[in-house]
Design brief:
Blueprint (H helix, E strand, L loop, with lengths): L5 E5 L3 H9 L2 H21 L4 E8 L7 H24 L2 E6 L6 H14 L5 E9 L1 H14 L6 H5 L12 E4 L18 E4 L9 H11 L1
Parallel strand pairs: 1-2, 1-5, 2-4, 3-4, 5-6
Helix pairs in contact: 1-2, 2-3, 3-4
The protein binds farnesyl diphosphate (FPP).
Farnesyl diphosphate (FPP) binds next to helix 1, helix 2 and helix 3.
């Protein structure tokens, strides 16, 4: 069996890359999307079953409206363009997070999940409007409301990631060594790799090096 089933990534550094090379944070997000595509392919090649990507945190709502709109437009265009390819490559898409989005975004997310729900080679969990403390709090509220026993299993099974094995590896790019409220329950035993590279600079070789090091 593959010892590596699940990789989670905090894709940090788009804004800094964009400002440094293109004088625009948004251009950094656009470039970051190219890295997302490369990483998806390496994940498939290495038969890793789950890839969780931190794309928008509950804290990201504090960013300028123009940047938030840009990110949502990027996401919408990406999903519209990629859904056929996801089906061809047998990729399932799951959204984890609060999902407090404008209707057009909610609709495209739901549609993308539905159109790919039977796929099984790779599951991409896209963390959007995601915060780990909120996720754990919601799980505890659910347990209390349904009068369930407070246990590790019941908490795990009440998170957005229920039925998904915990990640063996967490990667954070962008030269920042912290967890930023991402998967705090699920990464209890994960190996953590911090990369100094900004997300748009992170490449196939960097990812493969981490996979090899873990194995
Ligand atoms: C963090 O960089 C990155 C984000 C908040 C967004 C991640 C988005 C992408 C990789 C592209 C879009 C993805 C999809 C799936 C549509 P930052 O802006 O915090 O960078 P900084 O630390 O340099 O400011």
């Amino acid at each position: 069996m593959n010892p590596l089933n699940h990789v989670a990534i905090i894709m940090d550094g788009n804004g800094r890359w964009g400002l440094k090379y293109k004088n625009s944070r948004n251009k950094g997000h656009k470039e970051g999307l190219k890295t997302v595509e490369k990483i998806i392919q390496i994940t498939i090649n290495n038969k890793i079953k789950y890839l969780t990507l931190f794309a928008f945190s509950t804290e990201n709502w504090k960013r300028p409206k123009s940047e938030i709109n840009y990110l949502f437009n990027l996401l919408e265009t990406f999903l519209k363009k990629k859904i056929d390819e996801f089906n061809k490559k047998n990729i399932k898409l799951k959204i984890i997070g609060e999902k407090k989005f404008p209707k057009n975004i909610k609709d495209i997310l739901k549609k993308s999940e539905n159109l790919t729900k039977k796929n099984s080679a790779l599951q991409i969990n896209l963390a959007l409007d995601y915060g780990s403390k909120k996720e754990i709090l919601n799980a505890i509220k659910y347990i209390s409301k349904n009068k369930l026993k407070i246990s590790e299993n019941n908490i795990s099974n009440s998170l957005y990631t229920k039925k998904i094995p915990d990640p063996e590896v967490l990667i954070r790019t962008g030269n920042t060594n912290r967890l930023s409220n991402f998967l705090l329950w699920q990464i209890s035993y994960s190996e953590i790799f911090f990369s100094k590279k900004l997300w748009p600079e992170f490449n196939q070789k960097d990812f493969i090096r981490i996979i090899k090091k873990f194995k």
